[in-house]
Amino acid sequence: MTRKLNCYIHVQVFRKLHAAGVAYRTCLAGVGADLSGFTISAQEAKENIIIDGCKISCRKKIFEKNNLPYTHFITTDFDVKKRKTEITDKVIDRVTEEIRMQIEG
């Protein structure tokens, strides 16, 4: 199956970063719905990583609206073109490593 959805790479990269202890994931829908438990989790997270699929940056706007701390990335900055780049394990690993290196400095 060919995957060209940026939401797929977003989820896979988050899973790898979380498993490595680099970032904590919270439910974006819960934050967007202003559910206090999710907002508190995001406020207390070690690092909120936001990965958007394009420059419109919807995920970033949700965090800004809720005054939450975050570090923002856009997949197009990693040569992942929305609806054009096939999202393979190799692409996921590359983007994960690039983001990890930027976070850890």
Strand percentage lies at 5-15%
Structural class by helix and strand composition: mainly alpha
Most strands sheet? 2 strands, parallel
H-E string: HHHEHEH
How much helix is in the residues?
Answer: 40-55%
- Beta strands, count: 2
User: What is the domain total for the residues?
Assistant: 1
Q: Alpha-carbon distance between the termini?
A: 35 Å
Strand order of the largest sheet: 1-2
Query: What oligomeric arrangement do these chains adopt?
Result: single chain
What would a concise description of this structure say?
By secondary structure, this protein is mostly helical. Helices cover 50% and strands 8% of the residues.
Secondary structure layout:
Layout: H1 6-19, H2 28-32, H3 36-44, E1 49-52, H4 58-65, E2 71-74, H5 89-104
Parallel strand pairs: 1-2
Helix pairs in contact: 1-5
Structure description:
The protein has helices spanning 6-19, 28-32, 36-44, 58-65, 89-104; strands at residues 49-52, 71-74. The mean pLDDT is 88. It has 5 helices and 2 strands, in the order αααβαβα. The protein is mainly alpha-helical. It has one domain. The chain has a two-stranded parallel ribbon with strand order 1-2. The N and C termini lie far apart (35 Å). 50% of the residues lie in helices and 8% in strands. The chain is globular and about 35 Å long. Helix 1 (6-19) packs across helix 5. InterPro entries: DGC. This is Zinc-binding protein.
